[in-house]
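Lab notebook, design round three. We kept the backbone fixed and only want residue identities now. Task for the bench partner: fill in a sequence for the structure below.
Input structure tokens:
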């Protein structure tokens, strides 16, 4: 879609050169039957310059391209109206360029919103007094030793880069490719997650999920413009806490946070309960005989409706990798165990983790 818009802008812009050539009688332009004054000829040339500038800025993904594109379309359309019978079909590319320009502005505003949120998120990062490993259940102690965690040097934030394949609903057959970025912090435990998913050729879905101060919020926009999801409330709060719990395997120091209470269930599993403010979420961690984490399960609200029920939400480890000497799950599946059967909606790969200690 990006390449197509750039090509349309270049070709459409060059066509406007005909108006300039006719105005100054530099060429015989039979496609334009009406006369064009020299003063208006400069406006035709301005349209050429603006469309070329739009194409270059769009290629560079500069948000200014949105403003340049809108200005180019306005001038172009006024020129088209002045020679309507000869140039009316020029309205069609103008519509495409106008939509792309507006979308660029919305995406720019969206990205700026995320940048502001990330700055505010990281301003709250600080050291936290943690428990001793010896205070945790034996399965959790064994896991922390297995992955190479050093309690004298705990990480206080994780920057997680992800690749994913996603499904938006249980009836969807094909996977949609996505890239995601996440920040998870230890102080006032929280996460900020943003995702871009290719829904259709030329159409992306932009999403942001977060848990701050025990409050969750999920926002999804089609093309960066049209809201699809904007969810808050107690069920979202609890679900975000459960997600934060399940993902502590990427920032293991969180297991020592005093806000988490642990209960050993047997030699290979332990239940964790995390309370932040007025919100509490719980889930169970399962480990193999070596101590590796293999699965997380939580009873989580499937939807954010008054009548919504809890269903098992399961994270399953497919592969491990080592980042900054910490061995963590790098490939995982997320599955809902619904009444109609299991729905695996996420196939996640960790591309990189950067820790702040």
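Proposed sequence:
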């Amino acid at each position: 879609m990006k390449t197509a818009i750039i090509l349309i802008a270049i070709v459409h812009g060059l066509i406007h050169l005909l108006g300039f050539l006719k105005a100054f009688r530099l060429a015989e332009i039979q496609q334009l039957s009406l006369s064009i004054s020299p003063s208006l000829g400069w406006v035709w040339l301005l349209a050429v310059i603006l469309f070329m500038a739009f194409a270059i800025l769009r290629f560079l993904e500069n948000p200014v391209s949105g403003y340049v594109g809108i200005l180019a379309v306005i001038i172009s359309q006024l020129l088209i109206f002045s020679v309507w019978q000869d140039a009316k079909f020029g309205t069609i590319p103008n519509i495409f360029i106008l939509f792309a320009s507006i979308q660029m502005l919305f995406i720019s505003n969206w990205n700026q919103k995320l940048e502001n949120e990330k700055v505010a998120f990281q301003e709250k990062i600080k050291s936290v007094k943690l428990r001793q490993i010896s205070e945790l259940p034996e399965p959790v102690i064994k896991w922390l030793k297995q992955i190479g965690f050093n309690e004298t040097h705990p990480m206080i934030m994780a920057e997680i880069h992800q690749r994913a394949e996603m499904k938006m609903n249980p009836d969807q057959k094909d996977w949609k490719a996505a890239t995601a970025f996440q920040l998870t912090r230890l102080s006032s435990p929280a996460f900020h997650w943003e995702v871009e998913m290719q829904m259709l050729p030329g159409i992306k879905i932009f999403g942001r999920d977060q848990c701050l101060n025990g409050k969750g919020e999920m926002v999804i926009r089609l093309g960066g413009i049209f809201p699809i999801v904007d969810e808050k409330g107690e069920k979202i709060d609890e679900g975000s806490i459960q997600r934060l719990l399940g993902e502590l395997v990427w920032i293991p120091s969180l297991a020592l946070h005093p806000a988490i209470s642990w209960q050993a269930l047997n030699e290979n599993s332990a239940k964790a309960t995390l309370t932040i403010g007025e919100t509490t979420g719980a889930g169970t961690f399962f480990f193999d005989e070596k101590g590796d984490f293999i699965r997380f399960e939580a009873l989580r609200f499937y939807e954010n409706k008054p009548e919504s029920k809890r269903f098992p939400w399961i994270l399953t480890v497919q592969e491990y990798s080592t980042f900054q000497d910490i061995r963590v799950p790098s490939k995982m599946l997320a599955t809902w165990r619904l009444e109609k059967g299991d729905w695996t909606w996420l196939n996640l790969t960790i591309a990189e983790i950067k820790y702040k200690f």
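Keep this in mind before ordering anything: Residues 2-104 form one domain.
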